[in-house]
Amino acid sequence: MTEDPSKPDFSMVMASSVHDMKNSLSMLLHSLELISDELPEEMKKSGKVATLQYEAERVNNDLIQLLGVYRLENDKLSVHIDEHYIRDFLEEQAARYEVLLNSRSISLIIECEDDLVGYFDRDMTAGIINNTLTNAARYTRDKIKLKAYHDGRHTVFEISDNGAGYPASMCNAPGQIFKGIDFESGSTSLGLYFAYQVAKLHKQGDETGSIELENGGDLGGGVFRIRLP
Amino acid sequence: MNIKETVALPKTYKKLKFLIVDDFESFRISVKQMLRSFGVEHIDVSGNGKDAVQKCTFERYDIVLCDHNMGDGQTGQQVLEELRFHKRLKRTSLFILVTAETSKEVVIGTKECQPDGYIAKPITKAVLQKRMDALILQRQALLPINKELDLENYPKAITLCTQEINKGSRYKSWCHKTLAHLYYLTGDYQHAQKLYEDILSKREIAWARLGLGKVQMAQQQYSEAIEQFKTLINNNKDYVEAYDYLSEAYEKTGKRKEAQIILKQATSISPLAVPRQQHLGELCTMNQDLEGAISAYKATVKYANHSVHDSADNYLNLGRSLSDGCEGSEPEKAKEYAEEAINTLDKATKKYNRNDVRASASLIETRVHQNQNDENAAKAAFAVAESLIDESSIDASTGIEFAKTLYRLDKTDRAERVLHSLAQRFEDDPDILSSIEELLDEPVSLRQKMKARELNKQGISYFEEGFLTKAIDTFKDALKEAPKHPALNLNLVQVVLKSFENTTPEREEVEGLNQYLNNVKHIPSQHRQYKRLTSLAKKVDSLANSLKTG
């Protein structure tokens, strides 16, 4: 916090603006939900409401990441690692996209043991998964899979689809492309950069988390994977 | 989530009582509609924290959904703090914080009060349902244990936790955490320690590390505990509780300076917790760090507003430290402190128009005016105080305040009378006795106190190194700053007696020591230096007598 009242701290201004915007988004999304319940079937299928929801979700994700990246740069981002039931966690993320995915006839499968437990920062990890889901919803043909498992030393989250996959240049070294973010290419790199940093903030002993991109996987399209120790 | 359990949920929802707290009506309505669609029948709403706390007094809610940021009034965290403080929230109830707030201070601040869950805005129906389902299933499963916890029937709760763990429950981690804490609460430190160590052998988990440190603290293994808390902070620099306990461990081992530094760090990570700021103020005062005390008490007053920790003492403490601050500061700074002190005390008496508050405030005000050499104003303020005080029944803290002011007005005899009668009336209360002693020992300004203490320390080390003459001179210098200080006077007497061992002193030299013993005569028999005074007086006496007869 700054002592000089004439020069407000930018992060405070941003945090309070984000707070305000999220309140508005909250109302916006709820109104949308109510409206879509009242709409005739053919309008529901047109996907216009879903587009509105999709865009609102994206704004929400961008806000979270914007604030997250700002805090990262100022060394103010810290993780709060707690124990979570992963299936509950994934179902909750999937629930956010139910209407959108239905309207686009995309099926979302969750593959995860009932009582699988993981240790991670809930909000940050949710942000990453939401961002990847938003991305997958854009590029997939009709299937997305949300998968989680333990590989012995890590909790692994995997989001795969049956789209065309990531460009080869991105798959090689996901750590590298964040060096210079190219904002003209859309929000993709910002999202990946955020995911990469959040993964690194998860530590256990000498191990830190990591992210991977590849093509193929269970559904033959793009696969985004985050490993947390 | 198990399918069978999920199917039974609508029935459960039907029986639960909900409270929604949010300052936006549209938001309250929208959440209410969502809950209705889940089958909830009993839903109350509240637009602000004050009303929410009131409602919780008259009704037992099973689940409270509370917004964090509610305009100018209480925050969700303060609502939770107040409910917990007055025990208006059962363990079987769930408090869920709804927040769009992502600022670090708020997130950490709320984590400290430990709500049962968070839901981030924006809320959609599907997300709320998933989240509530999970929370309610957990609540159902743990209800028997939490019921025993509410009844403080710890042995039963321990049995139930153990059963749940043996069943291979989904919630075994919660049960481990609760079980270890129960062992700690019931004083079974061995079992608690073993549990924490077992958990830590599998994974570094913050609450287990903290628990282990707490168990070691309880067994007075302070250096081990300090290591745990340091490890915790090293792994997670925002884990504020670790700083609190580390600071406490330092305090317990007499390292008040370190304790202050660590607590200061904790307040910069999470400034909103009022008790921590209060304690920092106390530590700074003990360490005679005036600037630090002023800033901590300022924060206390600021953040306590609307909270359950708001009290007249916060204002009086700030007034006190500001009053001490204007004593001996540069004139400009002193004036600034004095004005702020008067302003603060004024607010205290306006907000808490009680006799004891007004009396204490006038006493502090008297000292402020005295420090500013405004004798008329000091007299007027003192007259107000006197009119409010009945010396024979004065409470300890006002009594000490009264004596402090009397000293400042050079009414030394009266100050000592007040303290003596207090010492008699509160002879069973060690805390009160020690503050009386402190005042009797050094009824001088803080700056003189600091100098006298420094010299006393030096005198002792000269004495220990065998430089008796140097030690005597140093103690004499110290006495110029704090002439009535018992330990100081007695130290001097002791060193002088020691220096006589190898020579035959003059009778006058020995009798001269009585002057120092007389300086200490004001201490009551409850004083911790009293025995030493009588024994040294005897020695001086018999030495003088032996010289007379010899």
TrEMBL record, chain A:
Residues 16-229 form the Histidine kinase domain. PROSITE patterns: HIS_KIN (PS50109). This is HAMP domain-containing histidine kinase. InterPro entries: HATPase_C_sf, HATPase_dom, His_kinase_dom. SUPFAM superfamilies: ATPase domain of HSP90 chaperone/DNA topoisomerase II/histidine kinase. Keywords: Kinase, Phosphoprotein, Transferase. The lineage of its organism: Bacteria, Pseudomonadati, Pseudomonadota, Gammaproteobacteria, Alteromonadales. GO terms for molecular function: phosphorelay sensor kinase activity.
From TrEMBL, chain B:
SMART domains: REC, TPR. The keyword Methyltransferase does not apply. GO terms for biological process: phosphorelay signal transduction system. Pfam families: Response_reg, TPR_16, TPR_8. SUPFAM superfamilies: CheY-like, TPR-like. TPR repeats lie at residues 206-239, 452-485. This is Tetratricopeptide repeat protein.
